[in-house]
Amino acid sequence: MNHQALSLWELPINEEALISAVFPILNAKLILRLEELGFEENAPISCLKKMPFKGPKIFQIGDSIFSLTKEIASAVTIKILNCK
Amino acid sequence: MNEIALIGKPNSGKSLLFNRLTGLQQKVANFPGVTVDIKEGLTEDGYKVIDFPGIYSLNPLTIDEKIATEKFLEHLKTSPHLVVLCILDITRLQKSLTIGLQVQKACAEAGKPCIFVVNMMDSVKKFGGSNLEGLANVVGSPLIGISSKTLEGLGSLKELVADAFLNPPKYIPLPHQQHSTKLLNARVREICDIYAVKPGFILKSQNRIDQFLLSGILGSIIFFLIMLFIFQSIFTWSTPLMDGVEALITALGSAVTVVLPQGTMRDFIEQALFGGIGSFLVFVPQIFILIFIIGILEDSGYMARATIICHKPLSLFGLTGKSFVPLLSGFACAIPAMMAARTIESPKKRWLTILATPLMSCSARLPVYALLISAFIPKKTLFAGFIGLQGLTFFAVYLFGIIVAMLVTAFMSRTVYKNEEDAPFILELPPYRIPHFKPLFLRAANGAKNFVTKAGLIIFSVTVVVWFLGYFPNGSGNLSSSWLAYLGRAITPIFEPLGLDWRFGVAILSSFLAREVFVGTLGTLFGIEGADENIIGLSDKLAATDFSVASAIALLVFYALALQCFSTLAVMKKETGSWKMPTLVLISYSGLAYLLSVAAYNLVKLF
Ligand SMILES: Nc1nc2c(ncn2[C@@H]2O[C@H](COP(=O)(O)OP(=O)(O)OP(=O)(O)O)[C@@H](O)[C@H]2O)c(=O)[nH]1
Ligand SMILES: [Mg+2]
N or C: fewer beta carbons within 10 Å in chain A? Predict the structure, then answer.
């Protein structure tokens, strides 16, 4: 498999990726919450939509859709699965 | 007393179930974080039901989650007869179980019965439902499928709860091993792989609508149109209803006063009751429509999208997208609005949102605006008849409040609150739903009723006092030689810079008890003065005075900014933990209101 390390913020729309890690640059409570929401190693995630002017992006993780701002999404690293 | 606790993921239908069990009308809406405080009620069997704010985990992130978690754990420990209903949303089983299994474990440790209530079963019927028996076996606690919407399964749920109170041990979960988040997630995923409805099915239509409503430019245009629509509906469409109420009150007033003998009693009924209180009842339809329309928006699922669309623009002013819901509900009332700010993760942005909400024009200001505008702004249309000048003025007053609020938060976020703790937001997007009109209708009716009863008592008392002082010693038609006039002239200098005479001064001062009192007081005063006229609407009476448009605009500016609501201050104190912010806000907003209204008066007079 062809891996490419990126942050979640850089994930192109409609492409699927696996999460590799959440960087501890966020506060501990927030990291725990992300983990509890399923942001953990090897969890599949995809980006559905982005807003203009670097606004929040919309991600699907598991059975839910979440909106994250750049601050959080750039603290999550991913590996893209099917590089086109 | 037997207690039932409703706990679970946000937006899983806890409050709707609470309403079904208790017959109450707690707020239900389609976005996460609707309930932000503990709510209690009684079932017909005499059980106490406790509705907690929704939580994603027992490790709280926001204030509403902290309240829920602390109170829930406290109840687990101290309540002797407690049955915990852990609500799972079948369409979001994964996130529901993450908190569900944590709750189950807490119940096991506390030795309390726990029942899993799988809600929203109606939404998955078309996908073939779900194997609940299998699910019950793997989670290892009694489990029942229901729909709070269609009432399916509610009877069996009640039986199960009754049984749990009779045989608690049967319902107490077995002790868990200590879970790490990783193990918990793995277990949840395992369960969901087998028992959850495929997310693809459920999210398909939601994502399709989002492609449209969240697409950059189009999304923003739609957002704007929706906001415009709200305004139109409140100010244009409510007019026939308001005219209807006014006609009704006038007819009733004439009918009653005709049969009464001439004298003080008749004057009192005509002037204080119909003139004072009646002129305020005219605005009830508007309040109703306002609450109803905001309710539709909230129950459709659009609020979460609006949060995202507004995030960038609001962050320029130190706020967050999550400030949008509190700010919008501030148009109805600042009190629930400030409490809604509890869902904001960042303490700094929560404070700024609380600071901004009192500047959103709440429904108590509506009567004041409507009265002044209908009396003094001409009924002209602009842009080839598309937009009415009166409607435009309304919009301008609301916008004025918003602009001042944004300036205040932009300033405060860069100065006083510069170093407060900040945090980014995480927001779950709920599915779109067709709003449930009946509960929305009931809620709006309830809101209108509260508007009448809450303000009604104050207005009644003030009106009676004002009438008494304005009527005596010389009776009808002699307002200018009444005791009130004598007292009123003492305060004239304060209001002279606005071009207002003592009658308006009295009305403004009395409105510090509640804004709506302004209308009641003026209604009474003009009733006494114009006693020989037939009963006509207050706005027509005002229009007939020599009061200028400049003063009307000054008054609009004043009411848009002034903080004249004690409950707002009290809740602000509760939410921020000290009197510092309320004191500061009272002084600065009221001072600003006065200064800017004087400026507005002088500016308009130039033209
Ligand atoms: N289709 C369907 N919708 C439901 C059902 N139960 C609740 N809803 C809807 O789900 C949304 C959320 O309901 P609430 O009762 O406010 O949820 P809550 O769990 O109290 O939410 P928070 O207070 O935010 O934690 C509302 O739009 C309800 O109308 C159900 O059984 N079926
Ligand atoms: Mg609720």
Answer: C
The answer to whether residues B260 and B192 belong to one domain is no
For the segment B104-125, what is each residue's pLDDT rounded down to a tens digit? Answer: 999 999 999 999 999 999 998 8
- Report the alpha-carbon distance of residue B482 to residue B85 in Å, rounded: 64
Same structural domain, B130 and B182: yes
For A31, the domain range is 3-81
Of A33, A55, A60, the CB nearest to B57: A33
The whole-model pTM stands at 0.89
User: What is the CA(B120)–ligand 1 centre distance, in A?
Assistant: 8
Q: Which residues of A touch B307 (CB under 8 A)?
A: 67
- Pairing status of strand A16-22 against strand A5-7: unpaired
Whether the ω angle into residue B473 lies within 30 degrees of 0, i.e. cis, is yes
Q: How many angstroms separate the CA atoms of A30 and A36, rounded?
A: 10
> In this complex, do A52 and B312 lie within 8 Å of one another by their Cβ atoms?
yes
* B53 within some domain: yes
Q: Count chain A–chain B contacts defined by CB atoms under 8 A.
A: 121
Coil, helix or strand at residue B224: helix
Per the CB < 8 Å rule, is A63 touching B95? yes
Angstroms from B355 CA to nearest CA on chain A: 23
Per-residue pLDDT of B161-206, as tens digits, reads 999 999 999 999 988 776 788 899 999 999 999 988 887 788 888 8
Q: Distance between CA atoms of B151 and B145, rounded to whole angstroms?
A: 11
Instruction: Name the stretches of chain B with pLDDT < 70.
Output: 178, 384-386, 476-477, 530-536
Query: Domain limits at B484?
Result: 438-606
Q: Which of B6, B7, B14, B16 to mutate to test the pocket of ligand 1 (most atoms within 8 A of CB)?
A: B16
Q: How many domains does chain B have?
A: 3
Q: What domain count does chain A have?
A: 1
One domain for residues B93 and B183: yes
